[in-house]
Amino acid sequence: MTDTLRTAPSTELLTDDPTWWRQAAVYQIYPRSFADSNGDGIGDLPGITAKVPYLTQLGVDAVWLSPFYPSALADGGYDVDDYRDVDPKIGTLAQFDEMIDALHAAGIRVIADLVPNHSSDRHVWFQEALAAPAGSPARARYIFRDGLGDGGELPPSDWTSIFGGPAWTRVADGQWYLHSFASEQPDWDWDNPEVREDFLTTLRFWSDRGVDGFRVDVAHGLAKSLPEVLPSKAELDALPKADGDHPLWDRDEVHEIYASWREVFDEYDPPRIAVAEAWVEPSRRARYASASGLGQAFNFDLLEADFDATQFHDIITYNLDAAEASGSSTTWVFSNHDVVRHATRYGLPALDGRDVKQGAEWLLSGGTSPEVDVETGLRRARAASLFMLGLPGSAYVYQGEELGLPEVADIPADERQDPSFFRNPGVDIGRDGCRVPLPWACEGSSFGFGPGDAHLPQPSWFGEYSVEAEDADPASTLALYRAALAARRDLQTDETLEWLPVDGRDDVLHFVRPGGWHVVCVFGTEPVDLAALGLGGAASGGAVSDGAEVLVASGPLSDAGQLPGETAAWLRA
Ligand code: NOJ
């Protein structure tokens, strides 16, 4: 591992404002599927550097990079071999420095993905643990246990991993280790001071290199407390999850770890930021988001909701209130590398309270049964995204959603990569469909992703959604995101909104932000008369007539000043 310490260059466009993250638009890059500079089929860091002008034109404040560390890719890079290096398949540390310099020079911050719940089984400490005897200090960095049964041939408990299949794997001398995810991802033992210290070193390593913040993977999983006699899966599932005392998830002690990280973040100016990926009860998010902890936490509530006015209203109200109470700002997300893209999700039947994973199950048919309504999905996704970008809080945008990219539902089984597909046969289609390399060009090798084939197969229709196809089209989804992200900058100083009543329509939401910014979204299929909302005179094209000026709309308004069904608009009145 090369360990040349460097200081980040200061650039004019980056201010030292410590609150830069509160209202930021953050673009998630899944590096291996973003842009491939050398034709090996895998996106890389020089590929990202080459696309900085694209990101600048898009108008994002920061990028979050999914893991770029050395990895056998048993879980798309969330199986980390070395936390303080770059995967040679996608670049070098020197190329990381070039990338970060180029992004900073463009005024774009960089958030790295930190994976502290588990390493990969190729990590040097796990290899040491395998070579060392039971009970040794090397084993004590992970969670090893003897098995049950006369010869210890049964796992220590019947727990299943999040990806399906057993949560314990046996090693050569007969002991078992715990992995909450794939067997290639052994869980760290966070009671071990060496583990704690090593992560502080990692935080400083990337912060010294200029990284502005961290997205913390499985932030609610680090602290564990396993009793001598382990509960069964049924007993575990029956335990309350929100009292801070569950053996595996969301334990109160996890916040001691983040308090020690906060001390490191505050060594920097501006302080490094962090956002927790914590799938916890909404009421338990505040501690992850506290100023003495990570500072911000993902709220996945909209991602788990249907395209429905009541659900959106209640989720937004709850989260804005909660963020205010915790002193943090909230986060909005519709898509990421773990879920069916929202342009497709909204073209499937309503979840009606079912888990968002239901989308992945429905797609087992390849999108034919139930059939995906592609047009409706895109129309709703555009409306929802525009509505969301008008909200106070940070907006997380997943690569490709700015193109309206649908999920690729029909990847052949033998070309899939996701362990959740292989560990859940016939139950889960897995997450490869949202990780297909981006189309940059209408045609050509891998639709402009790179000079060779892409590491996941792209469908023939991909070119229709390419950057090239959408770049000059004022009606494209790319144009919509560009316009919204540019206009949004005027909203970023204030963190409030006021809901306005919409008489007689419970499928329409309307709020106003200071400065007379109105955001309206029709969730149903019937148009709404903007004059009835006090926004008379509005028309497509942005012209001010006798009333409101349309700043951005997710679809054309009628000449009569009506906002069509499943459409959103920003207006100034
Ligand atoms: C959450 C990440 O987003 C997901 O992609 C990964 O598989 C798991 N954590 C395990 O690291």
Summarize the structure in short:
By secondary structure, the chain is of the alpha/beta class. The chain is built from 15 helices and 18 strands. Helices cover 24% and strands 12% of the residues.
How would you describe this protein?
With 573 residues, the chain is of the alpha/beta class. The protein contains 15 helices and 18 strands. The strands form 4 sheets. It has an 8-stranded parallel sheet with strand order 9-8-7-3-2-1-11-10. A hairpin with a 5-residue loop joins strand 5 and strand 6. The radius of gyration is 24 Å and the shape is globular. The N terminus is likely disordered. The site of 1-deoxynojirimycin has 9 residues, from loops. 1-deoxynojirimycin binds next to loops.
